[in-house]
Each structure stands twice: as structure tokens, then as C-alpha cells.
Predict the structure.
Amino acid sequence: MHNSEYFSGKKVVIVGVAKSGLACANLLITLGAKVSITDNQDNESTRLNAEKIEFAQIKVELGRHTPEFIKGNDLVIISPGVPNDALPIVWARELNIPVISEIEFAWRLCPATVIAITGSNGKTTVATLIGKVLESSGRKVFVCGNIGTPFSQEVSKMKEGDFVVLEVSSFQLENIKDFRPKISVILNFSRNHLDRHKDMQEYTEVKKRIYLNQEKSDYAVLNNDDPALKDLSAKIKANVVYFAQSEQLNPNQAAVVSVGSILGIDKDLAIKVLKEFRGLEHRMEYVAEKNGVKFINDSKATTVDSANWALKNIPGPVILIAGGKDKGLDYTQLREAARRKVKEAILIGEAKNKIKAALEGSVSIREAATLEEAVQMAFQKASPGDYVLLSPMCSSFDMFPNYEERGKVFKQVVKRIVGA
């Protein structure tokens, strides 16, 4: 790893006892740092995570944040879910303690070539596909970041000549300082995370930080079909490469092929990988069929655009299960697709009233207290040839720790129905 000696003897506090926080803490101890970790939640999830800390010398604070825990540290590293107005961040800045994100920390150690992907929709699919194309061309590649495996968990395994493909969220980009990918990719901009960012301008400006530190020897790959990206080239120091949808390639696939071409990978090889790709778990995932009713798990669809895309690509009538924790989205953008394709919407979670108000008049609406109840209701309503689609348009955090757990529960209920 690069710069590993820098952290020896440093006092570092990590904010957030989730996957990336744990990975940071465990890695920092091996680098000789003095590590503490704080989380304002004290519940079953945070306690279970704290038990995964590998080193007894890591100090842990759960259920609160205290100024004393921040004072005297040399560095604060924040997990993606921690907002910039959280008390530890406010205190750190008052004390002139540097604050960085987990991807900034891992990047400073990383000897591999970094390809970073951001955008409102499609990040996980594109990161996965770029990883598969690189593997098929004989490269050693790590796919991590917001996709599920923290960058800091994998960085100690990386060597010169390797590649790392990072899915990067706006939350992770908020607190970068020197983070500089060799190739940055912005797929698209649409209304998202307005529960965290004050407006679309702030959200898009944070996303643009992905190319903030790039130089002329780097590459920025942008979607030519997105009006917000089309005219950015004058503001970017890196070589700008535009991609566009075609008859042969959808936008995600076009982005993958563009990255491959920068790296000298034959287009035919990239297209072969795309054709063989069978999709991701929790993204338009076929689960099962019962009495002519098909069940589709699209738990990863946490935006209205994602749900629109799902409805567009399902060939039959849909019973839609949606809802969760609102991210400040405009659900009226689903009205037209719902009118054309959805027989009934079954709403769950904190956002159900907001979604109901946005969709009323365009589709029949019912409410359910739990996801399990919603799946049962959907199956009872469905007829042969219908699709029961979980496409929430919301984050999962009101009911589940993550979208993976939400999708897992959906599949468990479906399997019980099919078994019955």
C-alpha cells in the first residue's frame, strides 16, 4: 500500500459503526494508528457491528456522540451515511481536525488504477460490468465502494498494475480532498437524495466532485444524452469521452464499452461480456412463478427513474409494491407509467402517504403495514400473466438495514407462497 507509514501513531476517530467504518477501523490498527469509533445509535444492529471489530484496543462509543471522543484526534473519517451537520463533524471542524470520507482514506493507500462511477441510476450495474470486462481481458480487478464491499476492506490486497472499480455515491464524494480516479464516469443526473442535499443543484455539484482533482492524463466519461452533462467538457481538466445510447447498446452498456476502449480492450470482447451478463441480485431479479404470476425483486430501485425503467421493461400488467424512507423525490413522475402498466399499487413504509398523494387518480392504491403483508396482498390481487414487482423508489432504512435485506425478505415471502 502507498503512504501506510503516514497513519502510524496517528489518533483517528471513525464516525459510523457500519461496514465501511469497521473496515477503516480494522485497517488503521494494522497501520499502527490509535483508533476509536463512535455511533449515535445503540441498537441490535450497531451492537452486532461493534462485535465484528477485530482489535480490542479500538475504543467504541455507542448511543451518543461526545466532544471528548473527538478532542485530541489527528483525523476524523466519516461513513457515507453520516451527514455533514452531524455533531462529530461540527466539533471536528471547530477544533480544526481534518475530516475525510472512507474512500478518501482508502484512495491515499491505493496502488491500483482507480475507475470511479457515479450517477443517479445504474452505478451498480455499470461497476459490475466494467469489472467483468476487465477480468475477461486478463486484468486483476477489485469491485467495491458503494456496491457493498468497502474500498478500505480491499485496499490492502491491491498491487501496482491492478484495477479497482468503485461505485461512488454523492455521500462519499462530499468529503474527498485529493481523491483522483484515473477514469471517472458520470452516468446521469436525476432527482435523488433530496433528504440529504438541500436541492438538485447541491446534489449535482457534489456528484461533479468525482473529477475535481483529475488532470490532463486522466479521463472523464460522460453521458452525451444527459442535458446536465452534455456541456461539462470545458470545466474538466481530464480528457472527456462521451458515450451515448444506440440501437445496439443501452446507456449503461455504452458507458462500459467507452471505459473499455480507453483501456485498450477490444469492443467485441466487451460486447460478449455484456451479452452473457445475467443481471444483479435485487435489480429486476426474477424470483419465481405461481399460478401464472411472476415475482420480480427490484429492491435496488430507490429512485423514481428506476421504477419507471422497471415498468417500461416488464411485458405484462403489474401489481407494484413501493414505499420506504423518502429521499425527497417527485413521485408524480411515475403517474404516466403507472396509468399504462400498473393494475394496483400497494404502498408501505414512511413514504406511503406521499406516494399515495402523488399517484391518486392514476392507479388503484392500497396500503400494507409490512412488506410481507404487501406481497400476500399482491398475490391475491394478481391474475395469470401479471407481475408482482417490488420497486420501492425509496431507501430501506425505515424498515430494513439495507436494500439487500429488503430484497431478501421479499424473496423469502415469495418462496413461502410458491411452496404453499
In short: The radius of gyration is 22 Å. The chain has three domains: 10-97, 104-276, 285-419.
